[in-house]
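Table S7 (text form). Paired inputs.
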Amino acid sequence: MVPVMADVGGGSGLPVTPYSSDENISVEQVSRWKRLSRTLRIPVDRTVIPVYGNGMGLFYKRAGKNITANIEENVSDLPADIKIPDSFKDLVSIDEATKRIMLKRPMTLLQRNEIINEIWLEYNPARHHRQAFEQMEKAVRRLFLRSRFRKGIFFQFRGVNESGREVSVDFSVVKEFKIVRKENERALFEIVVFPDITPEKLVELKPSYSELRSRYTRVVRVWIALQEQDKGSLYIAGVVGGESKALLPGGGYREMCDSWFEDGAYFIESEERVGHIEANRNVVLEYNGNSVWWAIPSVIQDRDYPFRQYFLIRGFLHHDQYQPISTRCPVLQRWGEDHGAKAG
């Protein structure tokens, strides 16, 4: 069962919760939200780490090691005499006999746009059907998306502490982090863990947000390998997973198929080498989709609880036009019912 997401923002509107106000919160429910939230963490300041996507993940990549490539798309109405520009022949090719366009290695977003522009420059209304060129553009867009799926993404800081003991900190409980120093192809991360509480303890104690903040926050230091001989360099990526695909904006991802997420594959929208992150630059994380897994009633009833949402009544950006989200948002409720979950 996929739980429904609920957006949050700043301000003093009503707090958002993934649960119905009238239900008894179970350990299983909280655990499910915790598992999902680990894949939906993103940096607040994208200038620190330019990572975009539904969430943030880590993976190792060897130099020259591409993400999935050598893929094809059928173009049933192939434009007559269409050619791929010479500058992109090492990237994309066309087989006129089988009416297929083939991608040899992953393309960047810039390359995708340039190829599409070059193809449309060949369009001649007197000779071509516009529909054929629209098919070509769709095929190129799909090739870009399909080429950026990768397995082996993980959502924990994994390494050893300063005593050499193995440590793993799940993204679902990372509030912020920074690299204290780097040496010998590894980096010492300082991680603020919050809330440092299990779903079982949370449901049992029913703490307020203030109690969580004061009693269940700790700092962990972890040495993490920036380079592994058999795996390559460590990258941080903006990723989209199958469990959060429904949250995507429609625009550039309409062609993304559910089947592409099979076998633990994630779509990588952007990536940055972790070794390039500036030392002692604090990286604060937020929730994209903002599913605060521990936001049970005892937590959100605290006036200091920070995750709240406003909705516009009309299209005017004035404070008196804001309307707090209802505790039973109809849009979220319908999405949840379609996916076997409830929206609070």
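Next pair, protein 2 of 2.
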Amino acid sequence: MDERELSDAITEYLNNTQVSSHYEFIDDFCDIADTRNRTYIEVKTDHFAYAQILHAIAKKNIRNAYKFGVADHKEIRFFRPPPFQVIRKFATEFDPELIFTPSQVDKNDLNEKAEKMLGAPTQVIQLPDLSATPKYRFITKSNLNTIKAMTDKYRIDLNLLIDWLDGVGEHASIKVNDDGWLVNTNTISLFTNETEEAQRDKELLEFGGHRRPKHLPIRQKDIEWFESLRVRHGDLGDILHEVDRLMPRKKKA
């Protein structure tokens, strides 16, 4: 499990187990953020990047963080932030202009210094074996932000994908073909990222040809992720309501 996969797994785990959580994988100044609750987490597979999260908070000028955390594959350690000026002083001592990349900050000596400065964590969450990836990833209201981040990358309309997945169940019938398109092998249905009305309008014109879906082809590294997506019919109403809430205002119009 690489850092991205671990971040996704931690995001889903936190949203499923922590009350009123809204974590998202953001892959920006840190790996995971719950901006509503002003919480930020840096993830590494085999160590804790104390210096990196402090440097990120200073660089982004986040003065109102409620808590931040560092995580590896075994646990998450949360801390209440010291005063912002203390964080900034720590970061500017080795990077006066705050221009270092994250990899330049993730050094043993800086992590040791940051850990000593922070002291004991205020909360430690022990993680289960997240490497045991479930056979299917069920889309839920709580993990929707993580799912949407991936579908947005491929310009997939999440509403349409959820409708298409409804009824598939726990069967190994969703595959990505050689062209990068999603296919239900049971029904021989291609996901075109279009409404049924739009599909019907084109059927006559494209009779005998190959329909090209209205999204970017799925890349090799993301095939397993897409093939594992499922939705429970009983969750459909709540999920689609949440998708509608997350849609950009201009798209709703």
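Residues 3-17 form the longest helix (15 residues).
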